[in-house]
Input
Amino acid sequence: MKSGVFLVFEGIEGSGKSTQAELLTKALTEKDVEVDLTREPGGTEVGDKIRAVLLDSSLDEMHPRTELLLYLAARAEHIAKRIRRKLFVDKAVVICDRYMLSTLAYQAGGRKIDVKTVSRLGKFATGGLDPDLTVLVDLDVERAFARLDRTHDRIEKAGTEFHLRVRKAYLEFARRSPARIRVFDGAKEKMTLHEEIKEVVYDLLTRKGIL
Ligand SMILES: Nc1ncnc2c1ncn2[C@@H]1O[C@H](COP(=O)(O)OP(=O)(O)OP(=O)(O)O)[C@@H](O)[C@H]1O
Ligand SMILES: [Mg+2]
Output
């Protein structure tokens, strides 16, 4: 095996990404596969500090470019200090809760920053490291928000119109890259969804010689 496998979970807030990322981590761990479950922004000491700034609901006036660069700064650190080692040294399965597609959907789709710029800066931050597979858990904004009972953080406070654009952008990227981004129906019961995601992921891991 040359390297590990990089899996990413994406979707709007409340779609069920973290629930599914955790279920998959548990299932793979039970099969004795080495898994590193991590999340963005965060996953490193510096990244977690950047995360605290990004999600601080008292800071609602951050400029969109500042926000973009903070997400990418956290990601550069994550790739350099954690993900590359896990993939290429430990040859683990890395499961990342949000990655570059979040930035494309939120900062380009949601905040309307030019998509080419986001993409170019993203490549600089990641060194061009793309996931082997992205699981997009799709759910309509109304249902997703109805699931969130906690006090809305800064990003969630951005409003319905913003999140409608984010969802639309996610689906548009998925439509253009159907092999790399697989869409799942987040309205399904969580164990049903888990089984569907497992089928696709296990197929990939079998092809990669991990299962
Ligand atoms: N398939 C499902 N059906 C119904 N409820 C679900 C389902 N999946 C998750 N939930 C519930 O919805 C809420 C949000 O789920 P979760 O935290 O996994 O979403 P998320 O996409 O990670 O959200 P965020 O972006 O805010 O981190 C949780 O209370 C969770 O238990
Ligand atoms: Mg989550």
